[in-house]
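Quick check before the chapter quiz. The format below is the same one you will see on the exam, so make sure you can read both the input and the output lines.
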Amino acid sequence: MITEDELRKLLAEAEADRIERTISTKNTEKFAEAVTAFANDIANHQLPGYLVVGANDDGSLSGLSVTDELLRNLASLRSDGNIQPLPAISVVKFALAGGDVAVVEVLPSDLPPVRYKGQVWIRIGPRKGIASEQEERILTERRIAHARSFDALPCLGSSLDALATDIFQINYLNHAIAPEILAENNRDLVTQLASLRFFDSSRRCPTNVGILLFGKNPLEWLPGAYIQFLRLEGTTLTGDVLMEKSLSGDLLTVLRELESLVEVHIAERPVPRSALQEKLVTDYPMVALRELLMNAVLHRSYESTAPIRVYWFTDRVEIQSPGGLYGEASPENFPYQNSYRNPVLAEAMKTLGFVNRFGRGVLRAQEALQRNGNPPAEFQFDHHYVLATLRKVP
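Here is the expected output.
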């Protein structure tokens, strides 16, 4: 993170492409556009950019008093899901002689182009604006050398024919790209796919996440990309199998089928409230099941050949996700610390409406379980899997 001395030097410099000053404390649109532009790093500085709240254009301070609410609002720019893929940002407060400033440090993205509400913002010198088609192409080509996550890597051996491109065009594109950008209508299908990280232009093949989301047969390329559902009588795996189903195909279809399947198996039953009154309770709240299932889909390792396993016993539901905790997440800080193994998939699930806000899924599930009268969900961590257990309401 920037030091106070480095901040003073930046404030003294003329407006440039690595710093934006503002005295506004509530212009979220302006903040988000600046963060997006710094993350795209069109000038390829490979250095952080800084949004400084509480400074005038000439570098003088406005006398702002930075509140905790302002710091929370700035930090939420990363988690509200409007900037995709998720940027790496840090927020800090400095108390200087002429007033406070809040500084948002933004690291260049490994997965450009980064979008805010479907638009690619860039900064060249003091100018901030929406990227042209050529500028988007530059960002897309630059990504190839930096991609580190498995979902963003090319699916070697596959081709455009492996994708059901109608799913992309009908069900995804209008949600991901701003209408005014689509209205220009200058980008061909491959360019559109590549700009959203679903196609690798240099290798002329889809990325792994492109296959996962829109593949005609994802299992041909990602053999573990399915969900195994098992409903059992009793409390052990040796119980009678009441229902067995494997969900595979493009991810949009799989997630819709999964939601429908879970809804069918949730049971309601009357519980006495008094001598004369009853209330209906569900064995498990749908919100909790949905959040933990989406969490498993989002955070699992797709390099593994194992599926997500959902075992529905008489007294509990177990959700086993291949791949242990990732990055900075650990058993000690879970679920408050998040690192995204599949950042492009995270973007897609937010775009499709399966994720509402990042970093809140497990917490929302626990809140729903408590309201419904269930015990808290239990978690077990291993190098090879994460196991979530929901116990039936008493």
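If your answer matched, good. The chain is about 35% helix and 20% strand.
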